[in-house]
Amino acid sequence: MEKLGLSFRRIRTLLIIFLIIAILLSIRIIYLTTVPIESYTFIGNSRNVVVKRGDIVDCNNRILAANDELYSIYANPEQISKNEINLVSSELANLLSINRDIVFQKLSSKKSFIWLKRQITPKEYEKVNELKLKGIYATKEYKRVYPNKTLASHILGFCNIDNEGIEGVEKTMNKYLKHDNDNDFNDKSRISNGYNIQLTIDSSIQAMAEKALNKHASEIGAESGCLILLDGKSGEVMALANYPDYNPNYYNKYSQENFRNNAIFYQFEPGSVFKVFTMAGMIANGGVDLETLYFCNRVYSDGYDSVKCTGRHGYIDLGGLFKTSCNVATLQAAETINKTDLYYYLKAFGFGETTDIELPGEQQGVIRSPERWTKRSMLAVPIGQEVSTNAMQIVQAATTLVNDGQLMRAHLVRHIYDNNGK
Predict the structure, then answer these.
(1) Helices 100-107 and 82-96, interaxial angle, to 10°?
(2) Are the C-beta atoms of 370 and 346 separated by less than 8 Å?
């Protein structure tokens, strides 16, 4: 009985402790739901701490993406009496050019915070501020602007109304561009600057590339296209043009298809351009060399299937093979390598995996593993069939041809730095 009494006392003590905790939590909840919004203390990314998004510049420090300083109006409906809602709604609707019924509905809500209009001009802000309306507040915000309009639109991308990167470098580098670099966390009403991004592209070369691509695509009636200029020694992208383009300042006027970067999104069967890489692999494998001669009589057969060529090229060397884009010579060279080794060399060129360039939406392409090859695969893969790549993979792989076989990773970002240059 004595032990039983001890157990009851312990249970009673625990119940009292739980009851005290429940009362304290209830008090805290009541406080949080009744205290005015301006009395809150926000930590980190509060509404009072405004992070000014970093600039994006080209390799010569020309501005590609910057910010406009604007204001956004919000309300604390709990601070507005029912008798004032009609008057306040009418005045704000008139000044902000928004529907009065919508304003009235928002001010009649039971929320302690609600947006009325985002990103108004400084003049609109001054007019609202002059009214000194109770429960109506403003906060400084920044709107992303692209002074060069369509230039490099598929590289830059754009931001939404909350200044979050949605496409392009704005998305992939969002954590740097919107990073809070100010360590003064005691100041709750401050503006912090994000990191700036310097790209590898030259805006002058980019403009010429876009002009040339637009002209050619229009002349042949192409639905889409891309043009890539890459420094083969460093992997830096000097220009990356897409057709059609768009104006990121007005991104909401375009469909999602307009935002796709053709250079990394669309996959295609590379065809004859792939012969450069298959022949390089065969030479590295030791089965053929620069002096090897091939004989093309227009048709190549392996006993099971055959592949035709564009003509009868007779005896040709490697130079003749590339000059005529000879299928027969390429497949004769392929007799010196097995499918496992060929697959190994093609993977070493970066095919079948993403380039990891600083852009969203890249498709990795397809090169099937050797155990999944068919009898015809050794007639198809060496001439760029049964595989798929994107344009950036082709260009990146070509860097090996000017770097003694070393692959240089394609990249767009050269430097990330703060306003002090660090």
Answers:
(1) 140
(2) no
> Could you say which DSSP state residue 298 is in?
S
CA distance 65 to 277: 38
Per-residue pLDDT tens over the stretch 198-212 = 999 999 999 999 999
Question: Residue 51, SS3?
Answer: strand
Report residue 23's pLDDT band, with 50, 70 and 90 as the boundaries: low
The two tokens of residue 174 are 């969002």
Average pLDDT over residues 316-341: 95
Whether a cis peptide bond, with omega within 30° of 0, leads into 244 is yes
CA atoms within 13 A on the CB side of 237: 27
Q: E strands, 309-421, where? A: 314-316, 413-417
- From the CB of residue 301, how many other CB atoms can be counted at a distance below 10 Å? 11
Could you tell me the two tokens for 38?
């301006």
State the CB neighbour count (10 A cutoff) for residue 316. Answer: 19
94-100 contacts at long range (C-beta below 8 A, 24 or more positions apart): 95/124, 95/127, 95/128, 95/131, 96/120, 96/124, 96/128
The CA–CA distances, whole Å, from 249 to 142, 149, 151, 217 equal 13, 7, 11, 24
3-class DSSP string for 194-237: CCEEEECCCHHHHHHHHHHHHHHHHHHCCCCEEEEEECCCCCEE
Contact criterion met (CB below 8 Å) for 194 and 178 = yes
Q: Widest CA span of the chain, in angstroms?
A: 109
Helix count (H) and strand count (E) of the chain?
A: 15, 16
Structural contact between residues 177 and 195, judged by C-beta atoms closer than 8 angstroms? yes
